[in-house]
Amino acid sequence: MTVITLSGYRKTVKWIRAGLFLGFFAAMGLLLLIGAGFLYMKLLGEPKVAVPQSTLYFAADGQVIGESHAGEKRYWVALDEVSPYLVEATLAVEDKKFFEHHGFDFKRMAGAAVADLKAMAKVQGASTITQQYARNLYLSHDKTWKRKVSEAIYTMRIEMNYTKEQILEGYLNTIYYGHGAYGIEAASQFYFGKKAAALTLAEASMLAGIPKGPSIYSPLSSLSKAKERQRVILMEMEESGVITPKQRQMAMADKLRITGEHLHTDSETAPYFRQAVQQVLAQKLGVDEQTIALGGLRVYTTLNREHQYIAEKSIKKVIAQDSDIQPAFVSIEPKTHFVTALAGGKDFNQSPYNRATQAIRQPGSTFKPFLYYAALENGYTPATQLKSEKTAFRYDNGQKVYRPSNFNHRYADADVTMEQALAVSDNIYAVKTHLFLKPDTLVKTAERFGISTPLKPLPSLALGTSGVRVLEMVNAYATIANNGKYEEPVFIQRVENAHGEVIYEHQSESEQRFDKKQTAVLTHMMTGMFDKNLSSYANVTGASLAPKMTRPYAGKSGSTTYDYWMIGFTPQLAAGIWTGYDDGTEIKKADDKHYAKDIWFDFMEDVHRGKRVKKFPKPKGVTAVEVNPENGKIASDHCPVTRTMYFIEGTEPEEYCTDHLPKEEKTKEKKKEENWIKRLFPLL
Fold it and tell me: Looking at the annotation, which residues are catalytic?
């Protein structure tokens, strides 16, 4: 018989009270600690999801022309763009209670621990989808306690800040499916050549089994193991009630066609163009390099794949394979200023230096249209005459002398019209006009056309001795073709981020910088390089191309000792090319000197084949007059050669040509003139 004394009873009660008191404070401390932990994680906010994703570049027709990635093919897709079969298969095998737990499946964890103890080895996993997602995003796959604690913290933060649908979407877009395919879209494209939304039950159950061990369960590594894993997943789906026994049997019997090819492996599609696009993203849109390379952007460009193909084909066709001469080519649609094709060299893999956007080369006589536009603005007309003769020009208050010469030293030694001077590329006429207008006039006019390189106001500027970029020159010609409406070259129509949100969309900023009537007159003048009627003391510069032309072109060629150019346009398209040596070596071979014209003509004819021939516009206020190109007077029926010239109304010639009239008609005309003078001035 146990006897409890009063003093003993009091001691027992005292200890019980003390235990309860300590237990209460311990529980409160634990609750406070847990609460503080949750509060701390809430204050930390949502963990940033920074998953490297492939940036894709699209042509104007929506076709992918390239991508950038760091060895991980990954294309983020929304959850509703994934086959429901794949979602259910993944949940069945990875985390059946995903939508019920808050990041941890404690029952499953306990069961896994028991199984591991029985086997005395790690035989069963218990990580939820959220835990795996946290590990894939932020952690390594080592098995230290530090990593496990970090995983638990990240798991809780993810669950606290994202919806279940967002977590599942992120998980499916980050897990590894083998062979460089990260995320379900890349895996679906690689294994089956289709979008994740189109996966069948058989295909989805096959893919869902791969992440457990990509090197083991990939059907390309071991079809038998992949099929066994697929069978397990289909059984789990049937047990969960998401498919019927018949669906399971049909999926197992389905013979799958494995493609094993990644999308967008052709990195050769317009590499110089894509390089230019990346420069625009960085310099004009302010996108950082990391985002450009791995931000999962969708960049919708202005590239016309047909134009690009024809441009590259023409370059290969014309330039000898063993030649060190490099090309720089650009084509631009005048109405929109969209860059439709660009080549910055012969071979991007050998030389990624982009000569179309980076190289600064002397444009030669392709610079003259800017001069003659300035002349039109300052009272010149296509019929304005200046003498073409060997001339020494003094400048800098007579301290310096400039002695330009015409090609092959051919001079008219007589007055020639501006239209003819442009067509035969008379340098004397150009320098005289340049100095008459004052050199600063040409500098300012070229800047209005978008030429950004520094231009020196020297007499030689009229002949294109200051370096320029090919892209800017072609865009300037596109401005002429667009009736004087200027806009910077456009490479990008739209940019979307990895979630499909539009972060940039092109809005036209075109500006009517030049008079429509004057640009129409200039355009018609520029067709003269192909008109043999303007050949005289020198041939028009496009004489070799004219017999092969299938439509009207306006343009201008140009050359220096080291550079050969050809730029021209139709109402639909402007294109230009430079050819030369990177090191500035003199171009000596006769064939090499024809490369620019031949490539340009081959491209323009090919790209316009089958398209409607459009005439250059003649706006209201512009009149067409048949003129004798030798003297700029209105042509008579007796003139052996005539040329239709455009004039602003009120500036056209009034005097008729009498140089070719028969002798008796000349006498009659002379008498008429004398009689007219007598009637006007009877006292004479």
Answer: 94, 365
Q: Is 624 helix (H, G, I), strand (E, B) or coil?
A: strand
557: left (phi over 0), alpha (psi -120 to 50) or beta: beta
Distance CA 419, CA 380 (A): 11
- Answering whether pTM is above 0.85, one says no
Task: Characterise 73 by phi-psi region: left (phi > 0), alpha (psi -120 to 50), beta (else).
Answer: beta
Query: Residues near 111 by Cβ (< 8 Å), separated by ≥ 6?
Result: 124, 126
DSSP string, 74-116: -----GGGS-HHHHHHHHHHH-TTTTTSSS--HHHHHHHHHHH
Cα(596)–Cα(576) distance, integer angstroms? 8
What is the tens place of the pLDDT at every residue in 262-287? 776 555 689 999 999 999 999 999 98
DSSP assignment letter at 340: E
Q: What is the pLDDT of residues 126-183, one digit of tens each?
A: 688 888 888 777 654 455 555 566 667 777 888 888 899 999 998 998 888 988 888 8
* Residue 475 three-state SS: helix
Q: How many structural domains are present in the chain?
A: 4
Residue 203 and residue 246 in one domain: yes
Residue ranges making up the domain that contains 424? 360-488+511-608
Within-domain flag for 318: no
- 45: tokens are 């906010």
Q: How far is CA 52 from CA 74, 174, 294, in A?
A: 8, 9, 5
- CA torsion sign, 599 to 603 to 604 to 605? positive
